[in-house]
Amino acid sequence: MKRAVDVEIMGHQFSVTSDDGEEHVRAVAEYVDQQMRQLAGGRTTTSLQLALLTALNIASEYWKLRHEQEELDRIISRLSQRLTTRFGN
Q1: Would you list the DSSP string of 3-32?
Q2: How many helices (H) and strands (E) does the chain have?
Q3: By CB atoms within 10 Å of each CB, which of 9, 29, 50, 76 scores lowest?
Q4: DSSP class of residue 89?
């Protein structure tokens, strides 16, 4: 059931509607806030530039993890096939 959760990112208030639960939404918002603050690092930049750089960094993290997961899935599949061949019915 979707529910609105109020969060704050870089001093801006947002109401986020999600099925993922309040704890999850708050944790994700806190992560985004931390990433944006780390990138800002005291530099003067527009909110849009900072948001786009943060989005690119998070997308890069996701992309790398997704490819690592795909490689792990391939390894597990190969090992499973070897085990089935060796010990299969």
Answers
A1: EEEEEEETTEEEEEEESS-HHHHHHHHHHH
A2: 2, 2
A3: 76
A4: -
- Residue 89 pLDDT grade (very low, low, confident, very high; cuts 50, 70, 90): low
Q: Count the residues in the chain.
A: 89
Give me 65's structure tokens.
Answer: 């993890």
The pTM for the full model equals: 0.81
- Which residues, 6 or more positions from 43, have their beta carbon under 8 angstroms from its beta carbon? none
Token pair listed for 68: 């690592």
- Angle, vertex CA 23, rays to CA 21 and CA 26, nearest 5: 105
pLDDT > 70: percent of the chain: 99
